UniProtKB/TrEMBL annotation:
One of its GO terms (molecular function) is transaminase activity. Residues 43-339 form the Aminotransferase class V domain. Pfam families: Aminotran_5. Signal peptide: none annotated. This is Aminotransferase class-V. Keywords: Aminotransferase, Pyridoxal phosphate, Transferase. It comes from the Eukaryota. InterPro entries: Aminotrans_V_dom (IPR000192), PyrdxlP-dep_Trfase (IPR015424), PyrdxlP-dep_Trfase_major (IPR015421), PyrdxlP-dep_Trfase_small (IPR015422).
Length: 427
């Protein structure tokens, strides 16, 4: 294996994208990872830098925790803030997007008559968070905006505007909307900036679950978009070590997020505060492994060596469009987004399974085992709008032939499932 020490590696020319990049990741050579969207993947140079940092931490935990950590953490926050177009003191780090959304939603002072809105495609744990908040006192009203794909951004915007106009809370009560920048399943980009504007016009708070945005979306610019809250994972598309996420809370809204979760030793009751107390709470709210948090800076170094955000995403986006089309040809089906309006670096292709076949835990486990144990390959799959789909992540180590391999595997698996279930295959 080549030396993956970043200090030496980054003096060399970067590889071409595709299979030449595989040696910079720790994948089993027999495994084909087409599911970056779920867990991400940490490059070997980032792992090497993070492992070195871990040894430094362990060599003198007190020195690191009490003195060395803070300036390194500030530097990572500064670099990430610059990436997303925000002020450094509006950005803190949390373990993952679910924690970020929970931190925001559980800091609102809910009252009877308030309204909390999610989407039918809201990520599972976030959707359940909304449900849980509605289940406990004072029982704010929860509502759901339904969007079924295939559709268009224009339809989403028009329908959401109409929905919100008649579903905001009564006067004197608050409305909070949780919306995705990029939906997890289906893996589609949303017109989130337009939706944020609609929320603002309606007097509703916007909480953007941007779990997939950093490292995949290159024109974020939060100072311009002005969501009320925004959170994105760094261990997915930015390739930091699991797990770390950005929580963006603009200064105008930091009074809402009164406490970190868990509450930090730096917490000061709002009644007693004489200065800002937001950022400092996230510099220590319990003992954790700080190495993944600081790995985000090393991930940025690796990506800059490869050519930067635009070059990386140009390759991945082009491959997602071409790969989705090729996969649909092999399966004899269709891509969810033929015009590319909804696509960043994930493509959704219909699977040749009958819509009458409904998902069950047993079927889910069977498909997972077929993909992973029999074929050593994985791409996400899901049931949406009475159809079965696969979500394929186009990453820098993927080439078009990998979509073709996946197509053959899915064809085999779908044939087997249809026969096992005694069904007729879709045409």
């Amino acid at each position: 294996m080549d030396n993956m020490d970043p200090s030496e590696l980054y003096k060399q020319s970067p590889p071409a994208f595709g299979h030449a990049v595989l040696k910079y990741f720790a994948f089993d050579p027999a495994y084909l990872n087409l599911n970056n969207g779920s867990y991400g993947a940490t490059p070997r140079p980032v792992l090497a830098a993070t492992d070195k940092l871990t040894l430094t931490i362990e060599s003198n935990p007190d020195l690191f925790m009490r003195i060395s950590l803070q300036p390194q953490l500030i530097d990572v926050r500064r670099r990430l803030a610059q990436l997303i177009g925000a002020d450094v003191d509006e950005v803190v780090l949390v373990p993952n997007a679910s924690m970020g959304v929970n931190t925001v939603l559980r800091n609102f002072e809910w009252e009877t008559g308030d309204t909390l809105i999610g989407f039918n495609v809201t990520y599972g744990s976030v959707s359940k968070t909304i449900r849980n908040i509605g289940d406990v006192l004072p029982h704010p009203t929860t509502k759901e905006f339904v969007v079924n794909f295939p559709t268009t951004h224009a339809e989403i915007v028009a329908n959401f505007k109409e929905f919100l106009a008649v579903n905001v809370a009564p006067e004197g009560k608050k409305t909070v909307v949780v919306l995705d920048s990029i939906v997890s399943n289906p893996g589609v980009r949303m017109p989130w900036k337009e939706l944020v504007k609609i929320c603002k016009s309606a007097g509703a708070w916007s909480v953007v679950d941007a779990a997939h945005s950093v490292g995949q979306e290159t024109d974020i610019n939060l100072s311009e978009a002005q969501p009320d809250f925004w959170v994105s994972n760094c261990h997915k598309w930015l390739s930091a070590k699991r797990a770390v996420a950005i929580l963006y809370v603009p200064k105008r809204n930091q009074h809402i997020v009164k406490t970190s979760i868990p509450t930090s030793h730096a917490y000061i009751s709002p009644a007693d505060r004489t200065d800002e107390n937001f950022v400092i709470q996230y510099e220590w709210n319990g003992t954790i492994d700080w190495a993944p948090y600081l790995s985000a800076g090393h991930a940025l170094d690796f990506r800059n060596w490869l050519g930067g955000e635009h070059k990386i995403n140009e390759y991945c986006h082009d491959l997602a469009l071409k790969g989705g089309k090729r996969l649909a040809e092999i399966l004899g089906t269709r891509v969810m987004d033929p015009d590319g309006e909804l696509t960043f670096n994930m493509t959704n292709v219909e699977l040749p399974l009958p819509g009458t076949l409904k998902p069950t835990p047993e079927l889910d486990l069977k498909i997972k085992k077929k993909l992973l144990e029999e074929h050593n390959i994985y791409a996400a799959y899901f049931y949406h709008n009475h159809r079965w789909w696969t979500r394929v992540s186009a990453q820098i180590w993927v080439e078009l032939e990998d979509f073709e391999r996946l197509g053959k595997v899915w064809s085999t698996i779908c044939d087997e499932i249809v026969k096992e279930q005694g069904l007729e295959k879709t045409s």
